[in-house]
């Protein structure tokens, strides 16, 4: 089995389905959800589709079972890693396009992380806005043990999120960090007991999905443009274009009327 990326309506721990929240599941049974080439292509397709879906207000990404993602599917490596052309096609044409689709997605993304979060797992988590980790989560990128470095764009992404020192330790020492250490480093938003992870994720989903979806999308566009220094991006060149929008009017009217907004 080569693994799959599943997309489904998110259901909270109490069994309630949330129509505006999507659950994306990394699933590769027997391999701790290691990413195959097919999974990278599917991940890109899923997030490009979610970006176009105006009904989606929140995305939860998690691994099947007891791991988030243990890295790449090493069983595939011999078929492409030993020639620069095929290696470049993999990293630039499959891995990075999937990560970029996540980074360009304007919907808030919550990562629910338990167990192994290694290599590809750290890269995928680095694309998320809020990362909630169980105390049994472990983070690293020990690919030097396999004899290769992290691809440049992927290394830049990881370093920007875990911090320069943690990235160097992951890549140069093959260091592995626990959830508390990654929270201290600012990578993990919140740590929780494994049994309470679903409840903490549900609380976060409720908060995110109850807010104005337009505001969330515009905030992500603004933060992305600021990080890239792209002053020509609409979020920076036309920052007040939302002024006459329905959501803006509803939010103000609800506050003045002392009622809950209907977004």
TrEMBL record:
<dbReference type="InterPro" id="IPR029045">
    <property type="entry name" value="ClpP/crotonase-like_dom_sf"/>
</dbReference>
<comment type="similarity">
    <text>Belongs to the enoyl-CoA hydratase/isomerase family.</text>
</comment>
<dbReference type="InterPro" id="IPR018376">
    <property type="entry name" value="Enoyl-CoA_hyd/isom_CS"/>
</dbReference>
<keyword id="KW-0456">Lyase</keyword>
<protein>
    <submittedName>
        <fullName>Enoyl-CoA hydratase/carnithine racemase</fullName>
    </submittedName>
</protein>
<dbReference type="InterPro" id="IPR001753">
    <property type="entry name" value="Enoyl-CoA_hydra/iso"/>
</dbReference>
<dbReference type="Pfam" id="PF00378">
    <property type="entry name" value="ECH_1"/>
</dbReference>
<dbReference type="InterPro" id="IPR014748">
    <property type="entry name" value="Enoyl-CoA_hydra_C"/>
</dbReference>
